[in-house]
Amino acid sequence: MRLDHVSYAVGPEGLVATADKIAQQLGINWVNGGIHPRFGTRNLFFPMKNRQYFEIVEVLEHPAAEKAPFGQAVRARSKMGGGWMGWVVSVDDMTPFEERLDRRAVPGGRTFPDGRTLEWEQIGIKGLIADPQVPYILRWLEDTEDLHPSQAEPANASIESITIAGNRPRVRDWLGLGDTDELVDDLNIKYLAPSGTPGIAEVSFSTPKGTVTI
């Protein structure tokens, strides 16, 4: 289990303006990710080191966005003004999560501007909607190594830490870690007591401009 990416929903300024603003803060360029046909969303992203990335996502006016939990989650966060929507861990075996959550993972895919398709399966979006401090889980399908967003171009930044307004035992229980010493690989998680809705409070990045916290 390892951190795969962090997801940020756009506000009223829209996708490109949001990405441009964050690009200035980080000192790196964004990449056009394309659309998620099954979810009614599209994204731009920043490749990160350690096979990770930072996603900026926008909901589309499309029927899929009304039905798919991911589209619903993006729309809800955007209506709140935008900001951090969630964090995502990748796993090699989805079965333990399907058994614990008593439902099957759903397929996902993203069509690149050049027509290539990256495919995965994911679970836990409804959990994220109900409790934004917990991540959702995905498994990349085989033969996707070269298409993973972190490989889109050489990465000049990395995710250093995530600060979550929430409860550490709750997050670990959701991930099936419980009281063990097991950690999410390549992730420094900090917790603070929520003063309102739980969820990501901030993410710190190591960038060409030094440490930048958003």
Question: Key features?
Answer:
eight-stranded mixed sheet; 22% helix; alpha+beta; 12 strands; single chain; 2,3-Dihydroxybiphenyl 1,2-Dioxygenase, domain 1
Description:
The chain is of the alpha+beta class and 214 residues long. The chain has one domain: 2,3-Dihydroxybiphenyl 1,2-Dioxygenase, domain 1. The chain has helices at residues 15-26, 63-67, 69-79, 95-101, 125-130, 168-174, and strands at residues 2-9, 31-36, 41-48, 52-59, 83-90, 106-111, 117-123, 136-140, 158-165, 189-192, 199-207, 210-213. An 8-stranded mixed β-sheet has the order 2-3-4-1-5-8-7-6. Strands 10-9-11-12 form a 4-stranded mixed β-sheet, with no helix packed on it. The longest helix has 12 residues, at 15-26. The radius of gyration is 16 Å and the shape is globular. The two termini are 24 Å apart.
